[in-house]
Amino acid sequence: MTVLALDFETANERRDSACAVGLAWIADGRVIRRESHLIRPPEMRFAPGNIRVHGILPANVADKPGFGAVMAPYLDDLARGLILAHNASFDIGVLRAGLARAGLPVPDLSYLCTVQVARRVFPAPEGCGLGKVARRLGIRFEHHDAGEDAYACAEIALAAMREREAADVHGLAATIGLPITRATGGPAQPRRDPGGISGRAMAAFPAASAALSFTMRGSTGNRYHVAFEERPGGPQLRCTCTAGRYGMRCRHVKALEVGDITDLLSDNASDVVLLARMLGAKARAVGAA
């Protein structure tokens, strides 16, 4: 049976916002293959806290494929094999949510959490976070890089197998009394349009748009104000920076249009999500006219 470690990084608090994935296959007591990819999330909304953890910016994934395209080559191994993940409930949740969001069937999955493995085989008062366990075992890797984290997860499982003299991961699970978790999948769901908005929300847009304004940080630290304006040719964002004053779509406007809050100074990130949806809905309405 295929055994592979899996790790995701997400753009924000949502499980269906994966922006990177790492995978590492193990066989014959060693890591035999590694893969890592950046992913364009369905909504380009990156929470500052997530960026601080993994360092991935919207610009890094703007031209990358979506979840379904990235994960398609690995679904057979994931569905038929045994998945290892450090804090597996998170990574399995991201996998299932990402597939559902992409309109793809969610396969039955079997997985083992290496946090639980480490607590039984390598306990320590400081805890069993990935970085802490790897440091105790002498595993060198770059934490919060999805590919590197998947590799470290695989190496932790291999170290536990050696420690308990288990022939394979299934034998390790039996030796330490940790059952393999099995999650039932489901059929493909209708693909959700991240820009789709109900009629009630669309009706509220004219009133909401009047209050949409944002404070953005410039490249030299200056503060600029971006406001939403309804114009005869359609909705526009106007910025007070030099380019904006000349009627150009500056980088601050372009960032807000795709939900990028990296340089947002005002405390209204939820309005950026509303703005991106509103612009998307209006663009579709214009295209259908």
TrEMBL record:
<protein>
    <recommendedName>
        <fullName>SWIM-type domain-containing protein</fullName>
    </recommendedName>
</protein>
<feature type="domain" description="SWIM-type">
    <location>
        <begin position="224"/>
        <end position="261"/>
    </location>
</feature>
<keyword id="KW-0479">Metal-binding</keyword>
<dbReference type="GO" id="GO:0006259">
    <property type="term" value="P:DNA metabolic process"/>
</dbReference>
<dbReference type="InterPro" id="IPR013520">
    <property type="entry name" value="Ribonucl_H"/>
</dbReference>
<dbReference type="Pfam" id="PF00929">
    <property type="entry name" value="RNase_T"/>
</dbReference>
<dbReference type="GO" id="GO:0008270">
    <property type="term" value="F:zinc ion binding"/>
</dbReference>
<dbReference type="GO" id="GO:0003676">
    <property type="term" value="F:nucleic acid binding"/>
</dbReference>
<dbReference type="InterPro" id="IPR007527">
    <property type="entry name" value="Znf_SWIM"/>
</dbReference>
<keyword id="KW-0863">Zinc-finger</keyword>
<dbReference type="InterPro" id="IPR012337">
    <property type="entry name" value="RNaseH-like_sf"/>
</dbReference>
<dbReference type="GO" id="GO:0008408">
    <property type="term" value="F:3'-5' exonuclease activity"/>
</dbReference>
<keyword id="KW-0862">Zinc</keyword>
<dbReference type="GO" id="GO:0005829">
    <property type="term" value="C:cytosol"/>
</dbReference>
<dbReference type="InterPro" id="IPR036397">
    <property type="entry name" value="RNaseH_sf"/>
</dbReference>
